[in-house]
Amino acid sequence: MITLGKRGTVHDRHQIEAYLFQAKAVVPLLMDTYAKRFATRPGGFTRVIPIGYRKGDHAPMAVIEILNTDKPEAEVSFSYLVRSLASMQLNEETKIVNAALAPTFDAKAVYPNKRAFKQALDEQAIKERFAMKIKKAMTNAKLSAEQLQEIVDKDVEHTKELYEKEDSKKINAYVKEIWPENAPSLR
Length: 187
What we know:
By secondary structure, the protein is mainly α. The chain has eight helices and two strands; from the N terminus they run αααββααααα.
């Protein structure tokens, strides 16, 4: 759809209108706003973020995000990353950004068997991929580690304030709803 909007011909407009249910609201957005935003970009206008499975029928769910090249920090993936870091910081109760950026592996550790060693290597690989995501997000948003830490701290403080204001059942439901994967216990 965005590619059709970028071309901007009358035929492309008709193709968009034929495909969409509420074309009058969407066509100007595609033909003007997104066409200008992605004028130099050949493709890759969206990001799909899997968010787990729906209760009941276990259907896979995802957030489909149109990239915002003007403000990378406004994207869903950036807020998801901040929430993940804030969750880690609540669990660890220490500043987390610098530790997440430089994961360490204890090469001198003794493992009881081959399986435990492989599990430690897999965990290290996950930490390194997460560090790469953090670095990429910092580059896209033009943030330093200190600035990202401030954003994470604000998110942590906001969550703690909510916990103090509301009763624990409401806040735990809210935290489970907004936090990715493993929500902190906040106790």
